[in-house]
Amino acid sequence: MALIGIQLVVSLLAASIMQKMAPHYSFARWLLCNGSLFRFKHPSEGELCALAGKQMPKQTRRDRRQNGESKPLTVPKDIDLHLEKAPVNTIDALVLRFFLEYQWLIDFAVYAAGVFLFTECYYSYVDASKEVNIGAIWCVLTVLFSLKTLHTLMSHYFSSEEGGERSVCLAFGFLSLLVAMLVLVVKEDYLEFGLESGFSNLFDNLEVFARHQGYAEWSIPVTKLTVKLGLAGICSYIGALLAFPGLRLAQTHLDAVQINSGRPHIQLLLHVSFLSPVIVLILWVKPIARDFLANAPLGKTTVTLVASETFDSMRLWIIVVLCVLRLAMTRYHMQAYLNLAQKWVEQMKKEAGRIAAIDIQRKVTRIFCYLTVITLQYLVPVFLILFSTLALKALGDFSWQSGAEQTPGVTPALLIPTAAPVLPGGLDEDEEGMDDMDEDIQATVARLSEAFTALRSVLTPLFFRGFFAFLTWWVAACQVISSLFGIYFHQYLMQT
């Protein structure tokens, strides 16, 4: 197995470029600070006093606080307040909550996509079946880092004094656990993940590997029921992570559709983008997707619309296109979120009474401060689906071309590479030192090759097909559950 090759060179080059270019150019900064997004500035106390028809007090807020005057400046709620717009720039973005986490994850996902595209082109021209697919490793790392980012955001909700966010996460976690246990008992005739054959292949390969290592009496100490219970627990955790992203997506979708009421083509794209997880769910329902396209009823006969061999490639393309569409709709959703400041002001004008000026300023400022959090909640679920699909393609031995994929192997041969022997001979001290270094490098490469060969003998494409297919489907299912509940909450419960 070739470990030190062009793939590793390109991977190290991409990591170096990402580190060097981050302070100068960042795709994450460009996404927010390209001039297309507008934030709302909070009004000053002088502006609020002028709108309220009263004279600005000579003492500033700090002077009143130092003199022991705790009474805040208040204004009527029905003042004619209009917030001033300003484009989001880099200086504004640097003070946002979780901005560093946002910038690093978005940039890493962009470079991971670039490395994956390179490996796909490389594999299309070179027979690199014995090499490690570096692009697949970058995709898996992006999935793991995305889950870690969602965990950081959820821990922020758990650390808050108010218990409402914590209760929502726990409720969606328990609901996801129930749904996952129901899904895992559905037969493969209805949901064609391939989990059963994948885990059976994994257990068989582990036993073969153990016998090759000298453990003749070793057997798997767990059962399929234990594995499914553990997988259901992971699904529950992912469901809790995706609770607030789905709720926020529902709110920004409704606001974005309302804002673009005069642009029907944008509204159509927004609706398709919102319903894209539903399409992903249907793609793995065998009677609706594969069986229907392979044997479409036409009167008393059946017509093959899409051959079963080409359906897997078509499914990959559909998911990638839907993810690209959701990424293209990012700006509309983020602007809809920023418009919540003006929306809140319009709602405040309809209420009676007075409000503290500091409360108006805090509300408007808080909406902008959480812009990167909302952006992460929108983009991370898209990354989970997209890079899980890319990992499914690379590790599951699928192909982008129709009918070109091959049936994955069940149990590959365990071929342990050995280091090349070094021929003895009369050498001086410098040459001996260089030869010793070469021997160490060769021994290290041989050990890494042996480890990767053993890993590939256990984790076969058949296992990866089942695991990443289920992961992609489950992330889409969690988004459907949380976003539809969010639509119901914002459309009906908030209006009652």
Break the fold down into its secondary structure elements and pairings.
Layout: H1 6-21, H2 27-33, E1 38-41, H3 45-52, H4 61-66, E2 74-76, E3 84-87, H5 90-93, H6 99-125, H7 134-159, H8 164-184, H9 195-212, H10 224-241, H11 243-259, H12 264-283, H13 290-294, E4 296-298, E5 301-303, H14 308-328, H15 330-338, H16 340-349, E6 354-356, H17 357-369, H18 371-395, H19 429-458, H20 461-493
Antiparallel strand pairs: 1-3, 2-6, 4-5
Question: Can you describe this structure?
Answer:
The protein has 496 residues and is mainly α. It has one domain (6-57, 71-412, 460-493). It contains 20 helices and six strands. The chain has a two-stranded antiparallel sheet. A two-stranded antiparallel ribbon has the order 2-6. β4 and β5 form a beta hairpin. α11 (243-259) crosses α15 and α15 (330-338) packs antiparallel against α18. It is globular, with a radius of gyration of 28 Å. The termini are far apart. 31% of the residues are buried. Residues 409-427 have low confidence and may be disordered. The chain crosses the membrane at residues 104-125, 131-147, 168-186, 229-247, 268-285, 367-392, 467-489. Keywords: Glycoprotein, Membrane, Signal, Transmembrane, Transmembrane helix. Residues 1-28 form the signal peptide. It is a multi-pass membrane protein.
